[in-house]
Design a protein that fits this description.
By secondary structure, the chain is an alpha/beta fold. Helices cover about 40% and strands about 10% of the residues. The chain has twelve helices and five strands.
């Protein structure tokens, strides 16, 4: 049987989620045996023409060129999967959505006239149809392997859809917010990281973004009771998934 063609695309991002695929190490050999890496500049200079059976897209849309390019990627892809907080929620660069972009450009760049950027950083799904999202900053390599394996055998990927709080309970991790009074986004965020921060007595930072129907008002009230100011509450929500949490705060999530 002909191997499916896999393409990995980069938009505005740090490459961390692409590196998660390379970090699969031994498992990567098995993946490479089952697919043809048709386009993956992080790993190979080989370029095969589309169409592609599976496209993994990292990064958000932040430039006019990227608006056009994601349309081309979508047309060439049978299945398009966004990977990471940038692609699924605008990423940390979507912090610019809450500020004056021209002020940033003039402050950072010696020749701002060379910079061509949009005023906002937006997830891929705001521009094209997305078939599946893998969240996280970076993504969890186990979720990536599960997704690729499921697609290769024609089944639905088995991905967690519960909150980080549920992950803590299943792991027997003591709640850091109840027991130690530490701010934590666990009640409103997707699980998926492997319970990293709560297991070492740190509150969840929300790397995997807001879960479905998050009760943000209830959590922000609790964070206020723990001594966080309004600015601190906004700051803790506007990190890896700033654009997604902005929708939630505005009542659209």
């Amino acid at each position: 049987m002909k191997k499916p063609k896999l393409a990995v695309w980069k938009f505005s991002s740090c490459d961390g989620c692409q590196l998660s695929l390379l970090d699969c190490e031994d498992e990567l050999l098995t993946v490479a045996d089952k697919v043809d890496f048709a386009y993956f500049l992080e790993a190979t200079r080989a370029k095969l023409k589309g169409p592609y059976d599976i496209s993994l897209v990292e990064g958000s849309v932040t430039t006019p060129e990227e608006v056009e390019r994601i349309q081309k990627v979508r047309k060439q892809s049978k299945v398009l999967i966004t990977i990471g907080a940038c692609a699924t929620a605008g990423g940390i660069q979507s912090l610019k959505n809450f500020a004056n972009v021209d002020d940033f450009i003039n402050t950072v760049y010696a020749h701002p006239e060379f910079i061509d950027t949009l005023e906002t950083s937006t997830p891929i799904a705001e521009h094209v149809k997305v078939d599946l999202e893998l969240r996280g900053c970076p993504i969890d390599k186990r979720q990536l392997l599960e997704t690729l394996g499921a697609l290769l055998v024609g089944r639905k990927p088995n991905l967690p859809n519960h909150s980080q709080c549920m992950e803590c309970k299943m792991s027997g991790t003591v709640c850091v917010m109840v027991a130690k009074g530490q701010p934590c986004l666990g009640p409103i965020c997707h699980a998926g990281c492997g319970n990293i921060c709560p297991s070492i007595d740190r509150g969840c930072y929300g790397c995997f973004g807001p879960k479905e129907l998050p009760n943000v008002p209830a959590l922000t009230e609790k964070l206020s009771d723990l001594g966080m100011t309004k600015k601190q509450r906004h700051d803790v929500l506007r990190t890896f998934n700033a654009a997604a949490f902005a929708k939630v705060e505005n009542g659209h999530g």
